């Protein structure tokens, strides 16, 4: 058992023990401050709008099934001086779409950004379509950009009388630089005298290490860890620059990140991810494999010649049950994650069974880690 517990983690990841799934080992590593925090005020803003795509080759919405498309088309034509009230409009070259985009941080008026166009009705494809002028609004209801342009899609649909070929999602497309920014979000970063850094993975230890790294680099107590997710930096007195210069100086600093002991389990795919600080007390584990095989081999019974009978099918089922039990094995108290994983795999089980075993070990109180099931 000791030799089996000493197998390297590299051999494990090559699949020597796991053939039905994957176990990944998450290890803390050094990272730049700019890669583990978000700076206050430096953020995107989501925009959304409703519009029409025209010029489709008969792949648009069915106006009878999409009344919102018919109403939008009639309203657009009326604004252009075409009165269609009371008329029956029949066209399948128009599609109602939702337009979404992310307004980049500090985007200036007159600059452009990409937009995504998604069909709202029963259109089959947006290929060859053109998005008409569509206002894009933020969560506050104000218009921040205007989108228009030719839609580019990755998928396609080819239909015949007896066959249809479909690739990708032809009802979703993008317009590169398709939106013109009309309104800016006011935030003067350079005028700030203090700024908060938000950790993407909140942790007390990491928060303190970030503050210490900044203070050691600047030479004065500039950064203070306020909580596991926030570090506040203040512009030092007599600093030759503004807050942007200070951010430029500290974002390349490298710190050692930390994380709580956690096991993340995806039961659908059988994937298990373990943190490096997972520990287990000494436990004994046994496992039972039960395999049930069912095979159907029906027999066809024919009546004798000139007999007044009918052909019948007699069911014939072969049922086989195979049960194999592994002996009670001891998983030694682990000092490292490698010994824990190797000790569990020494039992010759797959990840799906390992999921149940880990949950059972957690229930006994022998597993010093949090289990999160996706």
From TrEMBL:
<comment type="function">
    <text>Assembles around the rod to form the L-ring and probably protects the motor/basal body from shearing forces during rotation.</text>
</comment>
<dbReference type="GO" id="GO:0005198">
    <property type="term" value="F:structural molecule activity"/>
</dbReference>
<keyword id="KW-0966">Cell projection</keyword>
<protein>
    <recommendedName>
        <fullName>Flagellar P-ring protein</fullName>
    </recommendedName>
</protein>
<comment type="subunit">
    <text>The basal body constitutes a major portion of the flagellar organelle and consists of four rings (L,P,S, and M) mounted on a central rod.</text>
</comment>
<feature type="signal peptide">
    <location>
        <begin position="1"/>
        <end position="28"/>
    </location>
</feature>
<dbReference type="GO" id="GO:0071973">
    <property type="term" value="P:bacterial-type flagellum-dependent cell motility"/>
</dbReference>
<keyword id="KW-0282">Flagellum</keyword>
<dbReference type="Pfam" id="PF02119">
    <property type="entry name" value="FlgI"/>
</dbReference>
<dbReference type="InterPro" id="IPR001782">
    <property type="entry name" value="Flag_FlgI"/>
</dbReference>
<comment type="similarity">
    <text>Belongs to the FlgI family.</text>
</comment>
<dbReference type="GO" id="GO:0030288">
    <property type="term" value="C:outer membrane-bounded periplasmic space"/>
</dbReference>
<keyword id="KW-0574">Periplasm</keyword>
<keyword id="KW-0969">Cilium</keyword>
<dbReference type="GO" id="GO:0009428">
    <property type="term" value="C:bacterial-type flagellum basal body, distal rod, P ring"/>
</dbReference>
<keyword id="KW-0975">Bacterial flagellum</keyword>
<keyword id="KW-0732">Signal</keyword>
């Amino acid at each position: 058992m000791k030799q089996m517990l000493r197998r390297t983690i590299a051999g494990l990841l090559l699949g020597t023990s796991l053939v039905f799934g994957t176990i990944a080992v998450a290890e803390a590593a050094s990272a730049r401050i700019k890669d583990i925090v978000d700076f206050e005020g430096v953020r995107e803003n989501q925009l959304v709008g409703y519009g029409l795509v025209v010029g489709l080759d008969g792949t648009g919405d069915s106006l009878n099934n999409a009344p919102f498309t018919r109403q939008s088309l009639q309203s657009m034509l009326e604004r252009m001086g075409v009165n269609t009230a009371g008329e029956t409009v029949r066209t399948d070259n128009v599609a109602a779409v939702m337009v979404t985009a992310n307004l980049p941080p500090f985007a200036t008026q007159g600059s452009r950004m990409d937009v995504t166009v998604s069909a709202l009705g029963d259109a089959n494809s947006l290929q060859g379509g053109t998005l008409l002028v569509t206002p894009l609004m933020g969560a506050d209801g104000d218009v921040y950009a205007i989108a228009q342009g030719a839609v580019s899609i990755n998928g396609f649909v080819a239909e015949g009388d007896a066959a249809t070929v479909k690739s990708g999602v032809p009802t979703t497309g993008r317009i590169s630089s398709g939106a013109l920014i009309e309104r800016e979000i006011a935030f003067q970063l350079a005028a700030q005298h203090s700024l908060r850094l938000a950790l993407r993975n909140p942790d007390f230890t990491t928060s303190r290490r970030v503050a210490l790294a900044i203070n050691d680099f600047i030479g004065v107590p500039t950064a203070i860890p306020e909580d596991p997710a926030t570090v506040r930096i203040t512009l030092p007195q007599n600093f030759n620059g503004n807050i942007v210069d200070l951010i430029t100086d500290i974002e390349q600093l490298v710190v050692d990140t930390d994380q709580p002991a956690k096991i993340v389990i995806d039961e659908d795919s059988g994937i298990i991810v373990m943190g490096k600080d997972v520990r287990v007390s000494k436990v004994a584990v046994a496992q039972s494999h039960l395999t049930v095989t069912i095979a159907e081999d029906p027999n066809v019974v024919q009546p004798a010649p000139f007999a007044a009978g009918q052909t019948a099918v007699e069911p014939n089922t072969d049922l086989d049950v195979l049960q194999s039990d592994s002996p009670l094995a001891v998983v030694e108290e682990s000092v490292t994650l490698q010994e824990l994983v190797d000790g569990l795999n020494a039992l010759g089980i797959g990840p799906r069974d390992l999921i149940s075993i880990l949950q059972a070990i957690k229930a006994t109180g022998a597993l010093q880690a949090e289990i999160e099931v996706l």
